[in-house]
Amino acid sequence: MPKPEGLTEPEPIREKKVYPPLRWWPLRVMNPWQKFGVLVVQNLGLRLIILALGLVLPSAATSVVGETLVVITIIATARSFRGADEPVLPPRPWWRLSARPLIGWWLGAGYLLGALSPLLHPERIEVNSVLVSVELAFLGLAFLNSSIRLTALRRHPQI
After folding, report:
1. What's the structural domain count of the chain?
2. Domain assignment present for 45
3. How many Å separate Cα 123 from the centre of its chain?
4. For a designed S-S bond to 108, which of 1, 47, 64, 143 qualifies (C-beta 3.0 to 4.6 A apart)?
């Protein structure tokens, strides 16, 4: 809009994104800062729970229960986070863990690389490291499955 001096207001470089508010039940998180906060609280909560379990359970049982809790919370959190173009209220399909395929490819590759790490030191393989490797491989394959399906949906929306 021109001013009396003949100058015009510059156009904004980019519009500020407005995210829907956080939903508590069912949990839906859209804002990136809220996602970061949820991850911090989740990580601290898991650490405290595993620490408390370590006081009452043997180390092998603590490892099994702790790692299972980690996998469950990662899957639950991934299903609760929503992308900018996703509907908030309806649940995701059972296989979908990310809004876009790219992050699923990266997370899947990272988890699968983590699953292969005990192979770097085969002389130090223990039951706990095998359990962690199996759970990391499960997470990696779950994220890769999500990305493969999302890529197929983008290329062939009629599927």
Report:
1. 1
2. yes
3. 32
4. 143
Q: Which residues pair with 81 in a beta bridge?
A: 29
> Is 18 a domain residue?
no
> Tens place of pLDDT for every residue, the chain, 159 residues?
566 676 777 777 888 888 888 888 889 999 999 999 999 999 999 999 999 999 999 988 998 999 999 999 999 999 999 998 888 889 999 999 999 999 999 999 999 999 998 888 888 888 788 888 999 999 999 999 999 999 999 999 876
CB 144 within 8 A of CB 104: yes
